[in-house]
Structures are given as C-alpha cells and as structure tokens.
C-alpha cells in the first residue's frame, strides 16, 4: 500500500497526535534539567515544579496590593476583550461579506476599499487608536475589530460570489426578493463559512490583544507577561503562554463543534 493511502486507526490517531507534544515536553525537561544542574539559579528554562509553584501562587493566593487572584483576573480581562472584539468583527464581517458578495452595485463601491484596508498592518495604527480612543478598553477591542474584520469580510465576499448564479436565478423565478435571497440562500452558507473564518483568525486576534495589553493595560495575560519579563520570570511567562494557547485551542474546538452541529451539510465527506 502506498504511504499516501495509509490511514491511522483511532488509537494510532491519538498516538500520532500526542507524540509531537511528548517529544517537545521531553526535550524541554532535558534542557531544563541540564541547565539547572549547571546553575540552580538559572531562569531561562525553569523546571516544571518551579512553574507550578509560580502559577499556584498567582492563581490561588490573593495579591496583597489589589486583593485579586491575578491569574484569573488576567484571564477574565483578556477573554472579555478578545470575545467582544471577535463578536463585533464577526457581525461587521458578515454584513460586509453579504453586501460585497451578493450585490454587484455594493461590491463595486466597497470591495476595492476593503481590499486596501485589509493591507494596512493593524499594529501600525495602534498608536493612532490610543491617541483617538484613549488607553482604556475601547482601543484594545477596536484593534481586534480593525485587524480581523477585513479578513472575515473578504473571505465571506468570496463565499458569496461563489454561490452559483443559477441558484439565485431559480430563487428569483420562484418569487424570492433580495431580502429573501439573503436570508434563505446566502446567509446559511455565509454563517457556515464565518465559523471557519473565525477559527482561522483566532491567532491574529490574540496577537492583536497581547500587543495592545503589552503597551497599555492594568490587567490581562499580555500585560502580565510583559510586566514580569523585567524580572526574567520565565516560570510565569511560559505557563501564561501555554495558557493562552490552550484558551485559543478551546475557542477553536468550540467553533468547530458549533460548525459540525449546526452546519453538518458544510462538513462534506466528514459529516
């Protein structure tokens, strides 16, 4: 059998999934043990025990200055920002995607502008957002919105333009008006694609959030990482990075599950 046609079984799939993570964990453990053996005060590669102790201190001991459990306060602050930003971006991207993908007149006016806007590096306008909107929550949320919306809108525009013209003509022949076409023909396909586009945009959304929090924030996962870096506190930084990755993965898994449950017809052969 050709290698191309080999498919792992269920147990093999789990093994192949976990194997790279196990290799990385072992490599890190080996590197950490080696450095700590040479220098017990080394901070570059803290041991698992050191990282667990640091996170236990931040997650289950009140901060003497604020009285908060810093780990959970940071998590809540970041999740609120990223979820609000993604929610606004999803709504705006859906509206723009439908407008540009279904209506040629609107596409002629807005699609070129949207293409140009999508080329602007969002992090380059972060100082502008801080000047115009201030240093509070709005500027951080808007950075996510500005960074993610054009990507979603352009992807949904292509989805709308890919709808067969024959399908739209048949619907109009049966008496459908423009509003009915949007709701009954375009919207289901757009929503299914929107979930996929959101999954692909999660990494960018977290990048924008961490960047904004690093510059101006009083709480948040990105804020904490850049705050403790001055102390070379890798026992805090590394667990925070892993936690951010886990949160992003959980969001991806949730979106994938919603897509599978509500749009099984969009799963193709996997449905």
Characterize this entry briefly:
The protein is built from 10 helices and no strands.
Q: If you average the pLDDT, what whole number results?
A: 91
The percentage of residues in β strands lies in under 5%
CATH superfamily of the domain at 73-231: MetI-like
Order of helical and strand elements: HHHHHHHHHH
Ranges where pLDDT stays below 50 over 5 or more residues in a row are: none
Any idea what the radius of gyration is?
A: 23 Å
Shape: globular
Biggest sheet statistics = none
Tally of alpha and pi helices: 10
Distance between the termini: 27 Å
Structural class: mainly alpha
CATH fold-level assignment of the domain at 73-231: MetI-like fold
What is the name of the CATH architecture of the domain at 73-231? Answer: Orthogonal Bundle
Helix amount = over 70%
The CATH class of the domain at 73-231 is identified as Mainly Alpha
- How many DSSP E strands? 0
């Amino acid at each position: 059998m050709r290698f191309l046609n080999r498919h792992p079984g269920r147990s093999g799939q789990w093994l192949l999934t976990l194997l790279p993570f196990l290799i990385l964990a072992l490599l890190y453990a080996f590197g950490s043990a080696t450095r700590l053996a040479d220098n017990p005060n080394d901070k570059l590669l803290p041991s698992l025990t050191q990282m667990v102790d640091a996170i236990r201190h931040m997650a289950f001991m009140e901060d003497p200055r604020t009285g908060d459990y810093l780990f959970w306060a940071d998590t809540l602050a970041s999740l609120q920002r990223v979820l609000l930003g993604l929610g606004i971006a999803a709504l705006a991207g859906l509206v723009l995607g439908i407008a540009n993908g279904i209506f040629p007149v609107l596409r002629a006016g807005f699609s070129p502008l949207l293409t140009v806007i999508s080329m602007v590096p969002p992090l380059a306008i972060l100082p502008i957002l801080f000047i115009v909107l201030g240093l509070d929550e709005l500027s951080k949320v808007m950075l996510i919105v500005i960074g993610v919306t054009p990507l979603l809108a352009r992807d949904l525009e292509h989805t709308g333009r890919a709808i067969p013209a024959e399908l739209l003509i048949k619907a109009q022949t049966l008496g459908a008006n423009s509003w009915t076409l949007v709701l009954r023909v375009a919207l289901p396909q757009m929503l299914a694609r929107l979930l996929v586009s959101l999954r692909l945009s999660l990494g960018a959304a977290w990048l924008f959030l961490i960047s904004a929090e690093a510059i101006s924030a009083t709480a948040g996962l990105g804020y904490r990482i850049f705050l403790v870096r001055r102390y070379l506190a890798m026992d805090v930084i590394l667990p925070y990075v892993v936690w951010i990755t886990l949160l992003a993965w959980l969001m991806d898994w949730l979106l994938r599950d919603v897509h599978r449950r509500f749009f099984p017809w969009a799963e193709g052969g996997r449905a």
